[in-house]
Amino acid sequence: MIRTEHLTKIYRMGDTEVYALNDVNLEITEGEFVAVIGPSGSGKSTLLNMIGCLDTPTSGSVYIDNVNTATLNENQLAEIRRKKIGFIFQQFNLVHTLDAVENVALPLFFSGVRRDLRLKKAKELLESVGLGNRVHHKPAELSGGQQQRVAIARALSNDPEVVIADEPTGNVDSETGNTIMDVLQGLNKDGRTIIVVTHDPEIAARATRTQRMRDGKLLA
Amino acid sequence: MRDKVLMAYRSIQERRTRSILTILGIAVGIAAIVSLVSVGFGMEEAITGELTMFADLISVVPGKISGATYVEQGSFTDRDLKDLQRIAGIKDITAMTYDAAEVEFRSKRTPIFIFGGETEELGSFYVDPVGLKEGRWLRENDYKACVIGDRVANDFFDDPVHVNDKLIINGEKFIVIGVFNKASTLYAADVDPHIFLNLRAAKDVLQTDDVKYIMVRVYNIDDAEEIAEEVAETINDNHGIEDFATAITMGSALEQIGSVFSILRGVLVGIAAIALVVASIGIMNTMLMSVMERTHEIGVMKAIGAKSSDVLTLFLLESGIVSIVGGVVGCIIGVLLARIISLVASSALGIEFSAGVRVMVLLAGLVVAISVGMLSGFYPARKASRMSPVEAVRYE
Ligand SMILES: Nc1ncnc2c1ncn2[C@@H]1O[C@H](COP(=O)(O)OP(=O)(O)O)[C@@H](O)[C@H]1O
Ligand SMILES: [Mg+2]
């Protein structure tokens, strides 16, 4: 499903080079629930961004469904992000001028789904994450946990095979964190592949597999 | 597409304050261009309009003009007038006389130039364009009556002179039957400091039969130069002196004023160009700012699967809508501003004019607003959409 080969990302800061990722070889098969853990700055976010086609590696490659993403052009990458991957950020990254249901419907807008259909689907998704009574709230009118649930609903709107979550519980209280993990676990039960970065060993324990990272390297 | 327009509209509406500021930024620039250019056109129209009223006119004086000095050689005779009537292409001929006379009002005396002529012709030269503030114009059989210019009425004597007041001109009593308006710049020297009589009264009071000034109107402005030459030759022949008379077409005066005017127009074009540059920079600035601060949003859109072209379309639509609204508002403000400027300038310069609002100018304003607005919205949007989503999302 997802495979990285010699994946390397180097950030140059003046004269010094930072190996955010250093020769990472990782394989994730369909239906897995992978937790990535490791100290801050170890390259977890960078890895997820590469897998999610949000950034390009310095060297090495990412294969999604056996397609080398390095060979794809801008629009093809956008299509993968739109159709195959649902990305959940630690900072939620909602569009603050749009209300909850419009945020959830935004990926469908870019897929060309009709307005009434996409709003209907977005509303259903919001209901499924327990926000049926908050559809017309703006992000600023929602708590951190509620915003993260809107972000999850948005990530699911295009029915992706893979859900990638970068510290989804980092900015919410532990109870909300548990709910979010419940949602992710439920998605995994439905057959979706889940990749989640977390600091919380308890949460990591709910995954089917745990990957440790340090200094841009994958630990065995 | 309708969907995208709706989306763009939502985004503008949700950022109300920002959008209004951006629209205002564009509107101010466009208003500057529209008002300046309109005022410029208005001035041009006003001046050429006044000048063309004169264009069919030839002034004939019995003397030589060289540079700024005028040497009088004598006066015209009845024979001169008769001979002129035989020249083809002349519509009418007005003989006039003028001279300084001593004028008294409430025991204050001052020398004033008296103008005498055929009342109807004289009227068509001065009453139509300048207009009377009080009373009426002279008639053929008004004998001891006069019409006075604005400065005669208000500046020359201790008290202002009104209709029915009596002036003593060279010892003879005249009743004031009309007072001119204050004349615009073009007519001020001809009308404001003068007293107008009918020809017979002027000849009597000035004690002369001399005709010192002939005005000739031609049918066709294009023939004016030729006819002027013929007029001068005819009179010169009568008097047997080569340079006895000078005939000046107003067309040649127009040319002189025209060169002044082309300078004025150059200045106006310059001002408009500066306004254009300033407006463009202002529009670019507001647009760049309002799109740049949304780099994060563009990153989010791309992260959830938007193509660069989707993002660009949205932002082009947005900046297009904002630019059109800004352009329209700018045109409206510009027209109002031009009206105000022309009102103020009319009274300050003494030239009657109204700003020439032209469809072309309004269209140009809109085109500038839309093209500059969309381009300067496009540039940062494209820049942001070319970043990797991570880079754009990180941008705050
Ligand atoms: N845009 C960037 N510019 C420079 N260095 C970066 C950038 N993004 C990440 N890094 C560096 O790469 C390393 C890995 O970062 P990251 O993947 O965010 O770690 P983690 O998510 O595990 O905390 C860190 O040392 C970080 O400082
Ligand atoms: Mg991180």
Can you characterise this structure?
Chain A is of the alpha/beta class and 220 residues long. Chain A has a single domain, classed as Rossmann fold. Chain A has seven helices and ten strands. In chain A, strand 7 (162-166), helix 6 (174-189) and strand 8 (193-197) form a beta-alpha-beta unit. The longest helix of chain A is centred in the C-terminal third of the chain and has 16 residues, at 174-189. Chain B has two domains: 2-51 and 255-394, no CATH class; 94-206, no CATH class. Chain B has a six-stranded mixed β-barrel. Chains A and B meet through helix 2 and helix 3 of A and helix 1, helix 10, helix 11 and helix 13 of B. Residues 11, 13, 18, 20, 38, 40-46 of chain A line the site of adenosine-5'-diphosphate.
Briefly say what this structure is.
The complex is a heterodimer of chains A (220) and B (396). Chain A is of the alpha/beta class.
Write the layout of secondary structure elements.
The complex is a heterodimer of chains A (220) and B (396).
Chain A: E1 2-13, E2 16-28, E3 33-37, H1 44-51, E4 59-64, E5 67-68, H2 74-83, E6 85-88, H3 100-110, H4 115-128, H5 144-156, E7 162-166, H6 174-189, E8 193-197, H7 201-204, E9 209-214, E10 217-219
Parallel strand pairs in A: 3-8, 3-9, 6-7, 7-8
Antiparallel strand pairs in A: 1-2, 1-4, 4-5, 9-10
Chain B: H1 2-14, H2 16-52, E1 57-61, E2 63-66, E3 69-72, H3 78-84, E4 90-105, E5 108-117, H4 119-130, E6 132-135, E7 145-148, H5 150-154, E8 166-169, E9 172-180, H6 185-191, E10 194-198, H7 199-205, E11 213-218, H8 224-239, E12 246-249, H9 250-292, H10 295-303, H11 308-349, H12 359-386, H13 389-394
Parallel strand pairs in B: 5-10, 7-9
Antiparallel strand pairs in B: 1-11, 1-12, 2-3, 4-5, 4-8, 4-11, 6-9, 7-10, 8-9
Helix pairs in contact in B: 1-11, 2-9, 2-11, 2-12, 3-8, 9-12, 10-12, 11-12
